[in-house]
Amino acid sequence: MKKTLIYIIVAAVLVGLAAYKIAGNKEKQTKEVTEVAKQVDKINVNVVTVKRENIDTDYSANGTFLPKQEMEQSSEIAGRIVSVLVKEGSRVSAGQTLAIIKKDAIEVDVSQAQNNLQNAIIDNQRYENAFKTGGVTKQQVDNSRLQLKNAQAALRAQGVRVNDTSIRAGISGMINKKMIEPGTVVSVGSSMFEIVNINSLKLSVLVDESQIGKIQLGQEVPIKVNVLPEDSFSGRITFIAPKSDASLNFPVEIEVQNRGNLKAGMYATAIFKTNNGAETQNMLTVPAEAFVNGVSSGQLFIVQNGTAKLITVTIGKVYGDKVQVLSGLNGGEQVITSGQINLDNGSKINIIK
């Protein structure tokens, strides 16, 4: 009997402990659910603190260097190359002889043209003398004069052909490519040499339409060359296209004097100075992404006592992804930069760290 009573008491204690534990767990779960419910009511957002800063508004554009002049020297007559006087890498001056085409057959034609001219001179003299005595008609004299002019023109034409057997450089520069060797047979228009002038180079870049109005012809532009990071270069704007391409970019060319270490085809960056510096110092800015329905609306949310407050500010200039604020903010406010689509004025928020 006594043992049974002990069992009953132990069982009662265990039941009591179990009931107490269940009640405690229920209270803990209730608190957790309440806390989660509070968090669900809040909208997650990212924020930035408004501050004053100096804005770098220099505009950069990438491009490649092009020769100021380049040409493919071609043959003006057909024939066989008998000698090549330059090699790839040779510096040449305009008018310098680069190669010679065989001219034996042309010289034979020159001799024939000279003989024809001599005969035309003799015939014309005879007709001129006969005309003075009435021995020939005016028409016969005119024909002899015409024959003389034709013979003179034919000799000059052969002289041009002889001159064309010497292939002369059309521009000063460097032989970049040689396409012929002695013995090569060329036809009229055959490419023989590629000549490039890199005493000065053109840096060709594309400038966005938002920046094109801030640059002008003759403006000095600092240039950075990727493969020559220790050297500094500058050039002068010589061309601004009057029409943009399909992407609303304007081709711009910058002439750079070559100190000897630049090559055509090198990749470089032009840095356009688009302001005087004073107007972009110590200005109040916010990210462009903070604005509701675009920057032009001037509306954004700030954090106020754990809620989102919608305000309207007066904006100034836009500098890339930063927007100048003229009034409406003093600095130090927390501006919401993401999650605005889910916000209303007064919405509870949870700031994501």
TrEMBL record:
This is RND family efflux transporter, MFP subunit. GO terms for molecular function: efflux transmembrane transporter activity. Residues 75-196 form the Multidrug resistance protein MdtA-like barrel-sandwich hybrid domain. Pfam families: Beta-barrel_RND_2, BSH_RND, YknX_C. Residues 103-130 form a coiled coil. PANTHER family: HLYD FAMILY OF SECRETION PROTEINS (PTHR30469:SF15), MULTIDRUG RESISTANCE PROTEIN MDTA (PTHR30469). GO terms for cellular component: efflux pump complex. InterPro entries: Beta-barrel_RND_2, MdtA-like_BSH, RND_pump_MFP, YknX-like_C. Belongs to the membrane fusion protein (MFP) (TC 8.A.1) family. Keywords: Coiled coil. Residues 204-274 form the CusB-like beta-barrel domain. NCBIfam families: RND_mfp. The keyword Cell membrane does not apply. Residues 284-350 form the YknX-like C-terminal permuted SH3-like domain.
